Amino acid sequence: MTPAELSRTVLHAVRRAVDAGELSVTVPERTVVAPPRPGGCGDYATNIALQLARQAGQPPQRVAQVLRPYLVDVDGVTDVVLTGPGFLNISLGGAAPAALVEEILGAGVRYGYADGPDGPDGPDGPDGPDGPDRPIVQLHCPHDLRAVVVAEVAARILRSQGVLVRATAEALDAEWTAVLGVRLDGAGPAPESLPVNVRPVPAPADPLPLGRDAARWALLHPAAHDRPRIGDEHLAQRESNPLFRARYAHARTRALARNAADLGFGAHPGPVTGTQELVAALADHPRVLAAAATHRAPDRLARHLVTVADAALPFLATVLPRGGEKPSAAHRARLALAEAAGTVLAGGLTLLGIDAPDHL
């Protein structure tokens, strides 16, 4: 259940309470559900009871008590808890479905890839036995570093979706390959039938001094029509740097696996509550890859990795036992979800040609 669907569910609960004569209010057109604040619980919380209390002529807690039964009996809602002055904290069934975590861990960094081998050397590639019968997408870009990097990564993402691709540039500098690891399928003038079809806004400065990872991120994170910023902010080891957050979140998942092994337990997929935002981001990864391939837009993948990292980082602090607490099935399930998040981050960063370090 998405936040929008849950919001409609809350309003429907109000309407049912009004129809039953338990509340005398005008059903609002909209209400907001959001992750619980400190002191809350569950996956989402709503202040609808506080919003309606004055109109209902009842204390917010009483309004919340009236609404609770109408939410508890909704499919997909496992529990509703009242906290504070009248907040309704809602837990959703399948908040962290074990099947999704198992799918991610089973596929590894290829989670979200199209079924079957891909790339030029696979059985369906241009050099494989089935290659000649399949059309090849031709990407061609000018002699420009950003265009070359975007074309290379767009080709990788297309191949992840089972598409045969040939990426070429009008020219390719050896330094670009030496510093950024850029490699295309060819360089030189293209036939008239193949126009330049990858032409992002060029970088305003030389990104090579940033090094491979930061330079690639600086060129790939903005949309093609946006001018990239080339500066030391991409090297900063702090939360304001989205590249740092994505790589740090991955490194934290690897550290958790090592620490859990030291404590004598491993990951095992299972139900985990309070993780709807993270689970939604992980479940969305295949769609993001497909959209990035369709639109030749590596920036969509880069921004999605930041979304995954931002959803994962608060959760990662809850994975390991605390104090004298012994490892339990809940800890193993949380560790499995953390490893799934790390897997998605590693796979995405790899497609961008950026290192996903185990230590940072």
TrEMBL record:
InterPro entries linked to this entry: Arg-tRNA-ligase, Arg-tRNA-synth_N, Arg-tRNA-synth_N_sf, DALR_anticod-bd, tRNAsynth_Ia_anticodon-bd
Group of enzyme by EC: ligase
Keyword annotations: Aminoacyl-tRNA synthetase, ATP-binding, Ligase, Nucleotide-binding
UniProt cross-references to Pfam families, sorted A to Z: Arg_tRNA_synt_N, DALR_1
Domain Arginyl tRNA synthetase N-terminal: start-end pairs: 4-92
A Gene Ontology term for the protein's cellular component: cytoplasm
Domain called DALR anticodon binding: residue spans: 246-360
GO BP terms in the entry: arginyl-tRNA aminoacylation
Keyword Transcription regulation: no
GO molecular function, one term: ATP binding
Enzymatic reactions: tRNA(Arg) + L-arginine + ATP = L-arginyl-tRNA(Arg) + AMP + diphosphate
Spans annotated as Disordered: 112-136
Enzyme Commission number(s): 6.1.1.19
Name of this chain's protein: arginine--tRNA ligase
Organism listed in the record: Streptomyces mutabilis
